[in-house]
Amino acid sequence: MYRTPTRSKTHLLQRVAAFSLAAFLSVASTKPVFAGDTPSAPNVVLIMVDDLGYYDLGCYGHPQIKTPVLDQLAKDGVRLTSFYSGSTICTPSRMALMTGAYAPRVGWTQGVLGYKMDWDCGMNPKALTIAEAFKSAGYATGMSGKWHLGDPVPCLPNGQGFESSYYITKSNNQTKKLWRDGKLLEDPFDNRMLTEQFTKDAIRFIEANKEKPFFLYVPYTAPHFPVQAHPDWKGKSEFGEYGDVVEELDASIGEILTSLKNAELEENTIVVFLSDNGPQAGQAARADPFRGLKFSALEGGNRVACIVRHKGTLPAGRSSGALIGAIDLMPTLCHACGIDLESLSTDSPKIDGVNVWDTLMGKEGQHPRNDLLFWSGLDGFQAIRVGDWKLFLNRKAAAKPHKRNSPELNQKIAAIANGAGPVLFHLADEVTELTDVSAEYPERVKQMKALADERLEDILTDVLPLVK
User: Fold this and answer.
1) Catalytically annotated residue among 11, 62, 121, 148
2) DSSP labels for 366-413?
3) CA-to-CA separations, 103 to 112, 140, 252, in angstroms, rounded
4) 224 closest CA partner among 299, 287, 279, 302
5) How far apart are alpha carbons 195 and 179 in whole angstroms?
6) Which terminus of the chain is less hemmed in, N or C, by CB atoms within 10 Å?
7) What is the DSSP letter of 29?
8) Per-residue pLDDT at 400
9) Residue 48 in 3-state DSSP?
10) Structure confidence at residue 3 as a pLDDT band (50, 70, 90)
11) What does the pLDDT read at residue 36?
12) Global model pTM greater than 0.70
């Protein structure tokens, strides 16, 4: 884990010109192995979709939704099977991804902007973002998609490290306005066309910056509700309109990957794909084999698909069950690109993420993450995972029935609700979180609760408030 000493963000941005490509590649402690005979800084394309369930890709098991592009990406890279998004809902998930910190460190307590959070607040611009880290190292930085980190001008993408931005400020059910670099472009936008529009802008950014290293963030709005298929994709899928939307996403990501190939950047670009959280209730998305949905700290709420590809560097066709969180992507990607986060001194809070590049590479040795904290989207801290064990301190959060469930399943859930004290699950034995073994392992419960208390106390002593 990283802690950066206090210094102003203004100072950080003033240092941009001083960082040359050669300088940051020469940092021995973080220098990775680059593809090709001549070392060069890898580009990064970070793609996040909205409310996609763990099960909703072919390479994660869905039998009807066809995702050949992402299936091939998994064959060419590393498919993660125990990866957790930054939170169980949109805004805090993006906070965690952008800062490498648990969302409560940057002021989040509950809800998303526009729902249980004020409309007029946002993530504090003092927080060091992944875009600022890459910008400080001479990278061109751009985003195309959903922001959802605040409408106040200092909180918008161009104030958080992105030189180029094409975005909606909130979810596609909360706004009808489309912006570029702070200027209104469309009001209203056509929800059916957003995936195509974000894809075209992402390709424009790649083509404009192909001669220099770049960091591109593409947070698609789809398949968040309202699920509305593009006219050219409507009726194409075997899984209804939701399938149509996911299959368009897959093809659109294929267009981005093709643009990298055409620019001869395929082997010098790290591509990351993930979802921001699990399925929304009432939608066709699925998180099989896990229990729980968006907002819930159960596995289905934020164990999501994640694929990482760096052709010629990361081994192809690997699957990894290592415990990894979205908060780990910032330190990992910075390491892979030779950026020393500890040299970027700011007054940002502590980074909770860890560098998992060696794990992605398949190197033998100790994986740097052994525990991870989980919050509900509305009800505060819920659980801690340590290794294959997961402890819910709030028993009710682990025992929520759902109308999708069979009567037999809801009966098992009710049995959990009737117990007392924390709930302990052993995920290696049962990923559905239905068998409470807390009575069998009282000492483990005690140790995990103590570790959770320690982690939470550390967070409370280092919080950056939201701003308006």
Assistant:
1) 148
2) --S--EEEEE-SSS-EEEEEETTEEEESSGGGG----TTS-HHHHHHH
3) 11, 26, 30
4) 279
5) 15
6) C
7) T
8) 81
9) strand
10) very low
11) 29
12) yes
Residue 234: alpha-carbon gap to chain centroid? 28
Tell me the H-state helices in 164-272: 194-208, 240-262
- Torsion sign over Cα 129, 134, 136, 142: negative
pLDDT at 388 over 80: yes
> Domains along the chain?
41-370 (3.40.720.10), 380-460 (3.30.1120)
Q: Could you tell me what percent of the chain has a pLDDT over 70? A: 91
Tokens standing for 401? 């029935």
Q: Which of 62, 90, 224, 230 is catalytic?
A: 90
Q: How far is CA 350 from CA 2, 105, 137, 344, in A?
A: 6, 8, 20, 12
CA dihedral 30, 215, 86, 148 (to 10 degrees): 150
Whether the predicted pLDDT of 29 surpasses 80: no
Q: Report pLDDT for 429.
A: 96
List Cα–Cα distances, 418 to 40, 186, 365, 380, 438, in angstroms.
Answer: 59, 52, 42, 21, 13
What confidence tens digit (pLDDT) does each residue in 339-370 have? 999 888 678 899 999 999 999 999 988 999 99
41 pLDDT tier (thresholds 50, 70, 90): very high
Query: Does the annotation mark 90 as catalytic?
Result: yes
**What's the rounded mean pLDDT across residues 174-179?**
98
Spatial separation of the C-alpha atoms in residues 127 and 5, rounded to whole Å: 13
